[in-house]
What we know:
The structure holds 2 protein chains of 2 kinds. By secondary structure, chain A is α+β, with helices and mostly antiparallel strands. Chain A has 5 helices and 8 strands; from the N terminus they run βαββαββαββαβα.
Amino acid sequence: MPHQVSVFAENKPGKISRITGILSDNGINIRAITISDQGDYGIIKLLLDKPQQGNDCLQAEGFASTLKDIVAIKIDDSPGGLHKAASLLSGENINVEDAYGFTIREKNLAVFVFQVADVTHTEKILQKAGFNIVSDNELYYI
Amino acid sequence: MFYQKEIETMEKKELENLQFERLKKALEAAASTPYYSRHFKENKIDISKITTLDHLQEIPFTSKNDLRLSYPDGMLAVPKSDIVRLHASSGTTGKSTVIFYTQKDIDNWASLVARSIYSTGARKEDTFQNMMGYGLFTGGLGLHYGAEKLGCLVIPSSTGNSLKQLQLMQDFQSSIIHITPSYALHLVEVIKENGIDPHDLNVKKAYFGAEPYSEATKEKLEEQWGLDAYNCYGLSEMNGPGVAMDCAHKTGMHIAEDYYIAEIINPETGERLPDGEEGELVLTHINREAMPIFRYRTRDLTRIIPEQCQCGKTHRRIERIKGRTDDMMIVGGVNVFPSQIESVLMNIPEVGNNYRIVLDREEGLDRMHIQVELYSKLFQGDMKALKNLNKEIVEKLRALIVINARIEFMEPGSLPPSEGKAKRVIDNREI
Lengths: 142, 431
């Protein structure tokens, strides 16, 4: 099961560059980054090629960060691709706490990441419906 | 200009005799309470040996913590069935301090407040708009009963709702307002925004209380509103408002010396200071059946003005309160100690040891915002958990200090460390 690194950050200039700087210094590659913001503070979510190591070095620098289980699926980069997955989850009454995606042009591929309460259960449902679940190693080296 | 001429102009010697007589009675009543009977025994106080007013100094001080330790009724000197009311204020570490009143105590308190406001020129023909909070806090109800006793028309409008306040002022020609200075600053702006010149209103007098403010603010408010403002001092442990109040001359607050024995002490050594010297005000309540309290350390700094006032009252005056000897904050009229906030935060594992309290004033109302560091090891990584944590802290604080604080989470290590004398409170309120 893949992981993202969630980092707590105050909403102040220079926060992202401090985080990206630490990761860059440690040779860690960022696959995707999103920020959820709550006014005074936010959570920066990072998809890294080495999540455990990334989390460790952010913590060592004093950040409140943690590894979070996520569900990632691979779909064709075409209209309606995400809609199918979203309808399925809503039909199963699974609440998506957060979601983001990124595309890989040369492979004409899109990867969607979901944050849900029960990752294993959600993976099973998606798998049963024929979705292509991305394993952790595959995700980090895509 | 006297409501109770005989008492208000009593010769010093006679007043002292009255104080001593009441002190003796209060001591006898207190000796029956669980708290004071133990207190007297532990400190080897034989109340029969207290034969002059000066012997009061042999009795150890009572602190807010003593009130907390005797919670809920360890200082109660009458049967429970005789109590008709209680008021409470927050304690330093969680438990409230509770004050009980019999019917006679309520009547006495009302008479005292009536007398105090009479000295400022209030009469039964006045309409008194009471814009203070009602409830456990003594300010609202204390003045309400006093003004009613005097025979004023009392409008219990309480706090907030500025347009309604203005309408009441206009429709009933309110001549006296009781208000916090910060709300008065805001309300006068609202009045002007509505195209009304505050000087055209019928408001002639304002009683300011419940929060500290400067002489400059008082003068500014008098000018803006076109009224005379009078300082009013009180604390729930001593009943509430009425302990001391300005008379029409506005040259210091007369202590009601037939109800209280006032001393000024050096807060470090506890030694009594002569009149005129600045120190901590210590009060003994000698006219309350339900709950006598001896030598209560108010933590308020002031001095006794030795000279007699031109108004003819013989009761001595104290100067406006200069500050506190502890770290108590007054937020929207509520007494809050940083230790209370700390006690809530320290019981929440997800937050770290460092916090900072920031006080601001928006539209005349006090706002508290607390910056608190997250504890990195327990960070859960999602917004929902953070929002829940935020809500949990807000609710726990509200339950304890009755204030809606805004919580701002900070990164670990971003606040000054808790060691040493870190500045925990940043007060941006200008008043």
